[in-house]
Amino acid sequence: MPDVSTKTLRWGILSTANIATTISRAINASPNTQLLAIASRDLNRAQTWATEHGAQRAYGSYDELLTDPDIDAVYIPLPPSMHAEWTIKAAANNKHVLCEKPLALNLTQAQAMVDACQANNVQLMDGVMWVHHQRTHMMKAHIDNGDLGPLRRVTVGFSFNWDEIPTANIRTKSDLGGGSLGDLGYYCARAILWALQDMPTAVYATARYVDGVDFNLSALLWFADQRMASFDCSFDTVGRRWFEIAGTTGSLVCDDFVSPQSVEKARYWLHGPDGKEGEYAAHDCLQVANMIETFTAIVQTGQLDPYWPQQALETTRICQALSISAQRQERVELNAK
What we know:
The structure is a single chain. The chain is an alpha/beta fold and 337 residues long. It has 9 helices and 15 strands. It folds into 2 domains: 119 residues, 3-Layer(aba) Sandwich (Rossmann fold); 177 residues, Dihydrodipicolinate Reductase, domain 2. The protein has a 9-stranded mixed beta sheet.
C-alpha cells in the first residue's frame, strides 16, 4: 500500500458523470483529502469540469490519470460494464479504489477486482453511501442490542417512476449493465445483508424486462434460523426507499434509508407489539462525507480493511443469484456461510 499515512489523500476521478460532482464536493470538504485530477474521454470536457469543481489537473483519457504518480486514490463512476476493467487497471497502478455500485456485472468480475486490489495492497470499497450514515450505526445498535428480539423478516422497497423511458440513460442499456436490480436492488440486498449479517440459503425472483433490461424485480430470500427477506425494485413505481426489520418483539422502520429527506434530522421508528414506541433521529450528518472520511481513514492506517470488499462481493453474489432466478423462473440455492 502506498504510504499516505502522514499526508493528504490525493484523489482522481474517472469520468464527469453526474455523481462525480457529489463526490467531488465531499472530497473538497473533507479533511486530509484533495481533489487533484479529473479524466474524461473528451479533454475539453475534463478541463471545463476541473475549472468548475476545483480539480488541479485534467486528462483526456483514463489511462493518463491512472499513471499520474501524485494520485493516491480514484473514484470510478463509470457504467457498471466498465467497473472491472478500470478497477483492475487502477489497482495495477497502485491506486486505492472507491467504485460506484453495483461493483460489477457478475461475481467473476467482482472477485477479479477484489483479487487485484488485494494483490496490489490497495483498498477497495463500493460507493454505497447510506451504510456510512450515523443513523445507520444507530439503527444497527438496536438490532445488536436485541431490541427487536431474534430477527424474523426484512422487507425493503426502492423504486422510482419513469413516465417516459429515457432511452439514452445507461440504466436502460443492457450492454452497459443497466437494470433495476443493479441500480436499485443492490441497495436492497446490502440492507438485508447489513441487518441479518448472513448470506441467504436460497433466493427466488421474478422480473419484467424491457429490451433485455429488468425494469422491475421482486425477490424472496430464505435464511437459516427461521428468517426471510424480500424486496422489490423498479423504474415504474412511485419513489420509495424504505425498509422494515422485524423480530419477535419489535420492528424498526426507516422510510428513506438510501438518502435521508433531511440532513438536519434523519429519522427512523421503533414499533412494539402494540404499536409505535418512539421516533429516533441522527442530526446534521452527510453520508457522502462520512464515506470519503471512512475511506481516507482506512488508507491512512496503512492496513487494508477486508470488510468493505467482502460486503461488495456478498452483495454481488446475491444479485447474481437473483438475476439467474428471474431469467430461469426458478428458485436458486446458495451455499450460505
